Amino acid sequence: MKKIYEVSETTIGWLGQGKEEGEDGMKFLKVLFRNRKRLQSEKDRDEKRLGDELSNPDDWLALEKLLLRPWWTRVWTLQEYIVAHKFVFYCGMESIDREKLNVATVSMHLCMKIKENLISGRAFEATWIRRRLLNWYRKRHPMHLIGLMAYVGDYRATDPRDRIYSVLGLAEDRNLADPPRYQDQVTKVYAYLVKAFIERYDSLDIICLADRYNRNARRPPHQPSMPSWVPDWRIVTVPWVVPAMVCQSAGQHIGNFRPLPLHGAPDSYTAGRIVGSANAVISEDLRILTCRGIMVDNVDGIGGLKVVHRDREGNEDDWDEIHDSIASTSSVNSPSGDNSSLEIKTDPQHLAKLMEQVGQCILLNRKDRYLGDKSPTGYLFNEFQALCHYSLKTPGLVYPQFLDWFQRNKSLCIQGYSLAELSERFGEQEESSKINLNDLSKQTSFVSRFKDTTEWMQRRLMTTKDGKIGMVPGRTQKEDQIWVLFGCSIPLVLRKCKAERSYEVVGECYLHGYMNGEIITELQDGKVKSQEVNLL
């Protein structure tokens, strides 16, 4: 199919009949195209304006309906859109070519910077994702199969095996699943993809995506069910440019589709990555993955989180999932416990360090949402401290989503102190009054990075029995175990099963101080031992 589109003179994308404001939406795309230069020239001004042509809510509604049509999330249309020499959209009697659409998409982005909620995020993503992928393809940057599949998380196919096969023509490592095997059941196809990835890259990183593409994320679950270590690509998720930590910018085998100017030499998580380290064996029936790793600690307390699920099927309204806070009960974390082993001090320096570590966990120790640059000591600490302080004293000033998070996490005890107590001890700093507590204008503000981690990646603040701090998946439970598996860049939360040495994969975990091979050094120094585990 790829060759057909490459040699065709023109490829047509039929968006359907012009009814339901379809043609009006197409006409408005042309208006957006015409306004691109003006919007771009005004984007750095203090006062920005939409202008008369772009201020009619009916035009935006017509565009939203056009971009929510099924064509945009049909996975087979992605390849034809990207590889075709010339691509033209038709809706009723109206048409627009791909190049003008991409310019109009940038105008949409600039308009949304001026006024939020002009159009739903789901509608905007329809063209934005395709524009980003087209730019990568044209610049001949490597597009890895797993990263590509993870990015287009809400794309659909009648045959679930086509979640893989439909994008093979775009992937640099297409031989992971080429040639297609339609004679195999979907469970076998998905499991074989994991097997092929491990064998090619000597890496377990792919299993980290079994958290976001989780077999239990749908009610009722898809049948037949997958093992917990196999990403279930049948699950429909909200697209996000870095859907998991394993999609870090430094990732050589998965990666992400960050803006092209950001290419460079990013920092990397390397928790369990050592040369020739994976040594994983998958059973003949493709149900058990056996590997080695190191159990680091048990989960103790877990902060609360409100997750808003956006309906990707269009059948119902958004709905909230509430993860209640789970109290810390270990002697190290409990205020009434014996904290002497950690030499808990009450001096401001120690408490500031503890508070800073909590902030670093929320940032996943990265300055940017693409997880490319390690955050230096103290990075955005004043912003985090101010947000916590005002959440206690004058909550009306604080960004509502952070305030909700703080209320659900303030009682979580870490090394003998609750988050509320840590916030109280600092009081108001001189710089606090200068900090914008609702700043979403910059992707690098603390509030923006907080949203990346808690909303888009759905991570919860956590402390282990020994007082370590981290961020874990929403469905993590007390007593779950945190492991570093050989050949896996990111620590994992595992849940013990009844069978000996058997575990279920819960998902990837940020564990502060254990993201760069520290536990491997302890192993080499004889301080810890590795064990064989069976993932079911």
Features:
globular; five-stranded mixed beta barrel; alpha+beta; single chain; 16 helices; 536 residues; three-stranded mixed β-sheet
Written overview of the protein:
The chain has 536 residues and is α+β, with helices and mostly antiparallel strands. Among the domains are: 2-138, no CATH class; 301-475, no CATH class. The protein has helices spanning 2-7, 22-34, 36-42, 57-67, 76-83, 98-114, 121-138, 145-151, 162-165, 186-201, 348-363, 381-393, 400-409, 419-426, 446-456, 518-524; strands at residues 11-14, 87-91, 94-97, 281-282, 289-302, 305-309, 319-323, 413-414, 417-418, 459-464, 469-473, 481-485, 492-496, 502-508, 510-511, 531-535. It has a five-stranded mixed barrel with strand order 5-12-13-14-16. Strands 1-2-3 form a three-stranded mixed beta sheet. Helix 2 (22-34) packs across helix 4, helix 2 (22-34) crosses helix 6 (98-114) and helix 5 (76-83) packs across helix 7 (121-138). The protein is globular and about 70 Å long. The mean pLDDT is 92.
Gist?
This is Heterokaryon incompatibility domain-containing protein. With 536 residues, the chain is an alpha+beta fold.
- Report the major sheet: 5 strands, mixed, barrel
Spans of at least 5 consecutive residues whose pLDDT stays below 50 are none
Radius of gyration: 24 Å
Q: How confident overall, as mean pLDDT? A: 92
Strand order of the largest sheet: 5-12-13-14-16
Helix count from the secondary structure assignment: 16
Basic shape: globular
Helix content: 25-40%
Terminal CA distance reads 37 Å
> Could you state the oligomeric state of the chains shown?
single chain
- Which percent band covers the strand fraction? 5-15%
